[in-house]
């Protein structure tokens, strides 16, 4: 058993896959070719919690999607790599841009294309609906499935391991009660 507290203590950024993590993997197609995905506000709040904690968030999606771009903007996630099947390129870019080492990064994934990154990062996390091979290489498997709050669970789990979830939630609550110009929840 890896010492997850020690692993998580170093984490400065959480990178997440999109389809199957922020969603259940479904893509709805309209007759005019438009595309719909179902996201949950629970994960939107998760992004707000990460921001309050100073934990950087990035998304790397293997499949380009406007719906993903719109949702990322709503969640105020600016580091979006939308549509790169080989995730090693975006991963390297993110690492260099934020000046991070592998062991300062956590990654949440569900499918085999995530494995190459999950084997590099300090804290690989699988969602409940992930393929077994993905779960096998992870240090934590969320109880919730993709699209049902797994992303937020991963964020809160890291903060729990870091021993600071309570203080972050209290700070966020203060912010909600004394709101700035914009609502931190989306
Ligand atoms: Mg996926």
Concise summary:
This protein has about 190 residues and is of the alpha/beta class. The protein has helices at about 5-10, 40-55, 65-75, 90-95, 115-120, 130-135, 150-160, 165-175, and strands spanning about 15, 30, 35, 55-60, 80, 105-110, 125, 140. Bound molecules: magnesium ion.
Task: Walk me through this protein's architecture.
The radius of gyration is 16 Å and the shape is globular. 39% of the residues lie in helices and 16% in strands. Helix 2 (41-53) packs parallel to helix 7 and helix 2 packs across helix 8 (165-177). By secondary structure, the chain is α/β, with parallel strands linked by helices. The protein has a single domain (4-177), classed as HAD superfamily/HAD-like (Rossmann fold), CATH 3.40.50. The strands form two sheets. Strands 5-4-1-6-7-8 form a six-stranded parallel β-sheet, with helices on both faces. Magnesium ion binds at residues 17, 19-21, 110-111. Magnesium ion binds next to loops.
Mean pLDDT: 94
Number of helices: 8
Number of domains: 1
**β-strand number:** 8
For the largest sheet, list the strands in their spatial order.
5-4-1-6-7-8
CATH architectural group? 3-Layer(aba) Sandwich
Q: Which stretches are poorly predicted, pLDDT < 50 over at least 5 residues?
A: none
Bound molecules: magnesium ion
Taken from the alpha-carbon principal axes, the silhouette is: globular
Q: Which helices and strands, and how do they pair?
A:
Layout: H1 4-9, E1 13-16, E2 28-29, E3 35-36, H2 41-53, E4 56-61, H3 66-74, E5 79-82, H4 88-97, E6 105-109, H5 115-118, E7 123-126, H6 132-136, E8 140-141, H7 150-161, H8 165-177
Parallel strand pairs: 1-4, 1-6, 4-5, 6-7, 7-8
Antiparallel strand pairs: 2-3
Helix pairs in contact: 2-7, 2-8
Bound molecules: magnesium ion (MG).
């Amino acid at each position: 058993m890896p010492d997850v507290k020690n692993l998580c203590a170093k984490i400065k950024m959480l990178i997440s896959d999109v389809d199957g993590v922020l969603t259940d993997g479904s893509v709805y197609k309209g007759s005019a070719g438009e595309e719909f995905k179902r996201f949950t506000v629970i994960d939107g709040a998760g992004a707000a919690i990460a921001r309050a904690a100073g934990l950087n968030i990035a998304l790397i999606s293997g499949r380009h999607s406007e719906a993903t771009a719109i949702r990322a903007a709503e969640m105020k996630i600016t580091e979006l790599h939308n549509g790169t099947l080989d995730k090693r390129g975006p991963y390297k870019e993110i690492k260099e841009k934020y000046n991070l080492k592998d062991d300062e990064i956590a990654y949440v994934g569900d499918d085999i294309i995530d494995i190459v990154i999950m084997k590099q990062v300090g804290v690989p996390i699988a969602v409940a609906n992930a393929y077994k091979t993905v779960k096998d290489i992870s240090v934590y498997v969320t109880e919730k499935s993709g699209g049902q709050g797994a992303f937020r669970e991963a964020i809160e789990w890291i903060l729990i391991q870091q021993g600071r979830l309570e203080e972050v939630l209290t700070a966020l609550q203060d912010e909600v009660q004394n709101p700035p110009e914009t609502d931190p929840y989306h």
